[in-house]
Design a protein that fits this description.
The protein is α+β, with helices and mostly antiparallel strands. The chain has four helices and seven strands; from the N terminus they run αββββααβαββ.
């Protein structure tokens, strides 16, 4: 299932702490449980498609693109000195005129996955 309110999830993701535990596996804090956390794994396809899994309830019911996945991807992008944004449609992402990636569920071939744009981080003044 594709999330409906992508920008709200992106805002929620900004406040989550992320800690890497392996190359493509990260621990992301849970806001709904003070002592909880979720495991996010990321798989990169050759064609620029990302397949991510999360241990949250949304993902357990077939959802992808939760705030935990967004937080993990933003963390990895920042380590590469990049910023990312998430978009519900390809057309929305194309308007940004930046490099694009597609996010789909771990077992989904959803042609209408979420779109990610990536750009260099702004240098501090």
């Amino acid at each position: 299932m594709k999330p409906k309110d992508v920008k709200r999830l992106q805002r929620l993701a900004r406040g989550l702490r992320v800690r890497p535990i392996a190359k493509d596996m990260l621990v992301v804090e849970s806001k709904s449980s003070a002592s909880g956390h979720h495991i996010v794994t990321i798989h990169y396809d050759e064609n620029g498609t990302l397949r991510c899994r999360c241990s949250c309830a949304w993902a357990a019911h077939g959802g992808y693109g939760c705030s935990h996945v967004m937080a993990a991807l933003a963390y990895l992008a920042e380590k590469r000195r990049r910023a990312i944004s998430f978009w519900p449609t390809r057309e929305d992402a194309e308007r940004q005129r930046n490099r694009m990636l597609r996010l789909v569920g771990s077992q989904s071939d959803d042609e209408n996955g979420l779109w990610i744009t990536t750009r260099p981080l702004r240098q501090p003044a």
